[in-house]
Write a structure and sequence with these properties.
With about 160 residues, this protein is an all-beta fold. The chain has one domain (about 1-159). Helices cover about 0% and strands about 40% of the residues. The protein contains no helices and 16 strands. The strands form 3 sheets. A 6-stranded mixed beta sheet has the order 5-8-11-16-15-14, with no helix packed on it. Strand 15 and strand 16 form a beta hairpin. The radius of gyration is 15 Å and the shape is globular.
């Protein structure tokens, strides 16, 4: 299992320069991703699957945000959490009223994507009250083992 850590500064998920070592995390690999406290990473992939069902898929210590200019989908096979020791931000919708995902752009987040479905196996954890998760919108649908939440012009899914 490899661990990919973002470099200091801001950058696109898809750009090698955003990552320590100059290589972006490969999709569908069994690895963990750490967004460093000094980083702002904009997720800009049309589709990507991260984690391996046994580890944390993404640890957010800095800022992880969905693209505002391209449709994206992020699937996690492992938990996603914001670290308790930093002021972390997971922005999948609206960090401020001037920074919304515009109409026509979607940002999908799929949690608990597992080959062996177990209730409460993985999820999204905000570890401290100083951390933030932004997703704005309305509830869209409920089905067994699937919760969809429409967040403005993006979706939050849990499977």
């Amino acid at each position: 299992m490899a661990v990919y850590t973002s470099a200091a500064g801001a950058g696109l998920w898809s750009a090698g320069a955003t990552w320590v070592g100059g290589v972006k995390p490969p999709s569908a690999g069994s690895h963990s991703i750490i967004i460093a406290a000094t980083s702002t990473v904009t997720y800009d992939e049309a589709a990507g699957e991260y984690g391996d069902d046994t580890v944390t898929a993404i640890a957010v210590n800095g800022v992880l945000r969905a693209s505002r200019v391209t449709n994206t989908s992020l699937t996690c096979r492992g938990q996603v959490f914001t670290a308790a020791t930093t002021v972390a931000t997971f922005d999948w919708g609206r960090l401020s009223t001037s920074d919304v995902i515009p109409a026509g752009i979607t940002a999908t987040l799929v949690l608990n994507r597992s080959s062996a479905m177990v209730n409460f196996k993985y999820g999204f954890f905000v570890a401290d009250t100083s951390n933030a998760y932004f997703c704005r919108g309305r509830k869209d649908s409920k089905r067994p083992n699937h919760i969809s939440h429409r967040c403005g012009w993006n979706d939050l899914h849990g499977r």
